[in-house]
Design goal:
The chain is α/β, with parallel strands linked by helices and about 500 residues long. About 35% of the residues lie in helices and about 25% in strands. The model is unreliable at about 65-75 (pLDDT under 50).
């Protein structure tokens, strides 16, 4: 008998192509029997290994010319200026090594070399994949990990071979947005010029090596149509949230990390009427509202290395109240002072919306009313409702977990609750406060409210059926609704 071969089975989960500056990249997601997690493998399909070797030689020749002073590279720090100079000199070198290449091929090769040297190398490929939510560099010893919308955590075949290179990437990212990372300041929160959020740490603070975590900013943000189609939210729940926003009731979006709090906040803002002034406050710009809205986005700023020039969330909240806002959107409530100012804003007639870390409505009330936030429980009823988001880590599904109103004693009263077995929202109780508040200020009876909810539900079904999902189109539809020009049976 001959020796048997060990055959490793590979289950292919997905396969697709990316175009990264005319460099064609094939993505294959597979799950070999020998691995504990699926693998995300990338390969450049329109570039041979020989071409890559020649490009590396061109890169080295270019760097040597800069090093010997034969070429001068701008010290202005302006990345675009440096890229233009880089491109000009690379064109000469490409003519030398690829004399027969057409303009399109030369342009592709130049872009590849530039991204490998002035960009983030192969991380640029991952940034172009719209299916990726998070990119994680743990050290030079480990491959890059990604969080995929469909398959959750995957291990890639991309490795950054040196810790110095990871640190270089962090420094470059920080410099572009006036942030600094160094031995004295080994932690950095920043963002790419595209808006993607970045966190970086340096060794020995991160014991295994330097790290970079990039949370990608959705170029096309989720909209209410996407949420309904994906069953993240059901029609009745969406109609209920719309009712609250239409009548200027303050709402808090609650959930754990990665549960979709900011996405939900972004989605429901489309329900706001276009004739009101909206001010948003964020650490990093993530919200993207319809162009039909009267919206002024504001962003905090870290202090410089001397500790000057910082603008905090609290600074912006206080300043916002002087800008005649009708509605205030706060990215995330973290500190007591921020919460106190926001609840004061609610009591003075402003509609306030924000996000808060907690797993359910009861836990949110406990966290808000105890240290370090410490808001008095009797102040909480200024907040009319909580929308709780949840992510099932096993199935990677995001769902609205609860919609609750706040009672006069500050306790939450759940109206809708997600049933994980049926994977649907269930009405567990009737309104107790939202209907009373709306009856007091608008005269709407319980029957009127139910009819209004059913009409909103019909409009939402119409939006999904007709694939009205682009922000501008949703904004136009909402404008018609508030002008009384939209009625769907």
């Amino acid at each position: 008998m001959g020796k048997g071969k060990v055959i490793v089975k590979k289950e292919q989960l997905d396969k697709y192509q990316l175009n990264v500056n005319n460099v064609l990249v094939e993505v294959v997601i597979e799950f070999p029997e020998t691995e504990t997690v699926p693998l995300y493998n990338v390969s450049i399909t329109n570039m041979s290994e020989t071409t890559k070797l020649i490009l590396e030689k061109i890169r080295e020749e270019f760097i040597s010319q800069v090093g010997t002073g034969a070429l001068e590279v701008s010290e202005s720090g302006n990345l675009e200026v440096i890229k233009i100079q880089f491109k000009k000199e690379l064109t000469h070198l490409l003519k030398k090594y690829f004399p027969n290449a057409d303009d399109k091929t030369k342009d592709m090769l130049i872009n590849y070399v530039i991204e490998q040297n002035l960009g983030l190398g192969n991380i640029e490929i991952l940034l172009k994949d719209s299916q990726i939510e998070e990119i994680v560099v743990n050290s030079a010893k480990d491959p890059i990990w990604i969080y995929h919308k469909k398959f959750a955590w995957l291990k890639t075949n991309i490795v950054i071979p040196k810790e110095e290179r990871i640190r270089h990437f962090s420094t470059m990212i920080g410099r572009n947005v006036s942030k600094e990372i160094s031995i004295l300041n080994p932690l950095m929160d920043a963002h790419l010029l595209t808006g993607d959020r970045v966190n970086a740490t340096l060794s020995p603070i991160s014991s295994n090596g330097n790290t970079i975590t990039i949370r990608k900013f959705a170029q096309e943000p989720w909209t209410i149509t996407d949420f309904l189609r994906a069953k993240t939210l059901d029609y009745y729940g969406a109609a209920l949230i719309w009712l609250c926003l239409q009548h200027e009731l303050s709402v808090l979006i609650v959930g754990g990390t990665g549960s979709g709090k900011t996405s939900m906040l972004n989605v429901i803002c489309s329900f706001m009427p276009p004739n009101q002034r909206i001010l948003s406050i964020e650490d990093t710009r993530e919200l993207k509202l319809p162009p039909t809205l009267h919206w002024v986005p504001m962003e905090t700023r870290m202090p410089n290395p001397e500790g000057k020039g910082g603008v905090t969330m609290l600074d912006l909240v206080v300043n916002t109240l002087r800008m005649r806002p009708d509605r205030i959107i706060m990215g995330e409530i973290r500190k007591q002072a921020e919460a106190e100012v926001l609840f004061e804003a609610m009591h003075t007639g402003h509609s306030v919306y924000g996000t808060f870390h907690a797993n359910n409505a009861e836990e949110a009330v406990t966290r808000l009313t105890n240290p370090p936030i410490n808001i008095p429980k009797l102040v909480l009823p200024a907040l009319s409702a909580m929308v709780v988001q949840n992510r099932n880590r096993r199935t990677n599904q995001r769902r609205t977990f609860q919609i609750a109103e706040i009672m006069p004693n500050g306790e939450p009263h759940t109206i809708l609750q997600h049933n994980p077995v049926k994977d649907e929202m269930e009405k567990v109780d009737k309104f107790k406060m939202i209907n009373k508040t709306l009856n007091l200020y608008t005269g709407l009876s319980d029957d009127d409210l139910e009819k209004d909810l059913q009409q909103k539900k019909a409009i939402l079904e119409y939006m999904v059926k007709n694939n009205i999902r682009e922000l501008g189109a949703i904004g136009q539809l909402m404008s018609k609704y508030y002008r009384g020009q939209l009625l769907i049976k």
